[in-house]
Amino acid sequence: MKLCLKSAPPETFATPCIVVGVTEDGPFAPATAAIDQASGGAITRMLASKDISAATGKTTLLYALQGIAAERVLVVGFGKLKKLNGSSFDRACLAAGKVLRNHPLKSCHVCVHEVEFEGCDFSWRLRQAALAIHRANYLYTATKKLQDDGPVPLELASFQADGTYQPQIDRASGIARGYDKARELGDLPPNICTPAYLVQEAREIAREFDSVALEILDEDEMARLGMNALLGVSRGSTNPAYLIVLKYSGGSSGQQPVLLVGKGITFDSGGLSLKSPDNMTQMKYDICGAASVMGAFLTCVSLGLKVNVVAVLAAAENMPDGNALRPGDVVASMSGKTIEVLNTDAEGRLVLCDALTYSERFKPLVVIDVATLTGACVVALGHHASGLISNDDALANALLAAGEDIVDRAWRMPLWDDYQAQLDSPFADMQNIGGMSGGMITAGCFLSRYTEGMRWAHLDTAGSAWKWNEKEGATGRPVGLLSRYLMAVADGETS
Ligand code: BES
Ligand code: MN
Ligand code: ZN
């Protein structure tokens, strides 16, 4: 879907659907007032008769409203003004977007960002409305064609604003492109989206943009580097592993790059520590860390942000086999540290540790890894926040702020030394599991041993990266948070 700006008198604008907002207690926004007046007070009357609800996220679709050029008017509720905030604004816009997608419309004109409330200015509301409408419009079509009686995605959404807001809508379009890429990679089935497929995707990006260089490390190359932890995970699979390194130089040549590292397990069976059937059905989504890193990278590159970024994707499949890692095996990671693999299902940290060690050579400004790493993260935070662990307060705060601003939130967990002892092993420098308690934190502790000397943050997206047990699929998160952070770095808002 294309996003654009258009400043038009709402009542005379010919569009399949015009989208306006109402609150329970505030004045009408300009477009809402214009529609109300031109229709002889129709909105006012229907609010009074409760045919229109102004509650948060409630939508009313009106057909052929007298005096209005648009074929339909979609009225979106934003609730009580005092309670309206970034998060509830986003939720209501998403609900509007779902209605738009589920009706046979090819285009629409959106005015909901005219609804004013404290704390979020027009530019912010415009960007968020555009992102939410776009997000709601996503429909997976790679292996299932559009159905005759099913949803019809929009091709174009225009937003009521003048040309001075072009930079905002451009940024929204760039972020939207990153989200789409991440969602598509997450949703693709694991028989199609293999490590080699991820390599192809990276090649496409490198081909499209001159500012991007690509390096692919195959298993031989990784063996030479001593990446035995990563290779151990891949050993049971017939699909070879790859370390994919995408480099973007948008900043000056001396500028240290932001390093993004993604867990790209294209399918996580658990390995010999086999998952139960129930726990395995959704494990194609274990690629979502790498998918979101690739998405945010694409956002950054397509917007030409003035920042240097290196994306390192650890792409592998975790399968049981006669050649697979066994519980009890000890592997030497690239850093030289040895790991007793007590559970082959704790494979994410094994691929990440070698990817993180590899990242050191780029002398990064910061390194941020993204992974669907632990079920424990979901127990702790549910599906609304990504889990954040970091050894650097400034970086952690910048990431939290980025997530808050773009409504793709994270919540920080501690990285206290107290937890480290849970990884002690009599047979190696560490073991790869830390027991039941604090599972997200001990996974972070494991990774922290590979990031000493770097400013590092870890985002556990096990709960946020896809809609669990819903027929909705990948969310693309945290493309928004990462993109917003990269913008902050590019714009000099954070260092
Ligand atoms: N990919 C999973 C984490 C996961 C589990 C994400 C469920 C989303 C939903 C990861 O590789 C894993 O299996 N983690 C184990 C670690 C445990 C063995 C220490 C887990 O969380 O159960
Ligand atoms: Mn696993
Ligand atoms: Zn996994």
Give a short summary of the structure:
The protein has helices spanning 30-38, 42-48, 86-102, 122-137, 166-187, 195-208, 219-225, 228-234, 277-280, 288-303, 348-359, 375-381, 393-405, 439-448, 479-490, and strands at 2-6, 18-22, 59-63, 72-77, 107-110, 156-160, 212-217, 242-249, 258-268, 308-318, 329-332, 338-341, 366-371, 386-390, 410-412, 430-431, 456-460, 466-467, 473-474. It has 495 residues and is of the alpha/beta class.
Task: Characterise the protein shown here.
The chain has helices at residues 30-38, 42-48, 86-102, 122-137, 166-187, 195-208, 219-225, 228-234, 277-280, 288-303, 348-359, 375-381, 393-405, 439-448, 479-490; strands at 2-6, 18-22, 59-63, 72-77, 107-110, 156-160, 212-217, 242-249, 258-268, 308-318, 329-332, 338-341, 366-371, 386-390, 410-412, 430-431, 456-460, 466-467, 473-474. The chain is α/β, with parallel strands linked by helices. It folds into two domains: 2-155, Leucine Aminopeptidase, subunit E, domain 1 (3-Layer(aba) Sandwich); 175-490, Aminopeptidase (3-Layer(aba) Sandwich). The strands form four sheets. An eight-stranded mixed sheet has the order 7-8-10-9-13-17-14-15, sandwiched between helices. Strands 1-6-5-2-4-3 form a six-stranded mixed sheet, with helices on one face. Manganese (II) ion binds next to loops.
Strand fraction equals 15-25%
CATH class of the largest domain: Alpha Beta
Q: Give the low-confidence spans.
A: none
Q: What small molecules accompany the polymer chains?
A: ligand BES, manganese (II) ion, zinc ion
CATH architecture of the largest domain: 3-Layer(aba) Sandwich
Bulk shape: elongated
Q: How many distinct folded domains?
A: 2
Radius of gyration: 24 Å
Under CATH, the topology of the largest domain can be stated as Aminopeptidase
Largest beta sheet: strand ordering: 7-8-10-9-13-17-14-15
CATH superfamily of the largest domain: Zn peptidases
Question: What is the typical, i.e. mean, pLDDT?
Answer: 98
Which structural class do the helices and strands define?
alpha/beta
Individual helix count: 15
Report how far the terminal alpha carbons are from each other: 34 Å
Give the proportion of residues in helices.
25-40%
**What is the number of strand segments?**
19
Could you describe the largest sheet, including whether it forms a barrel? 8 strands, mixed
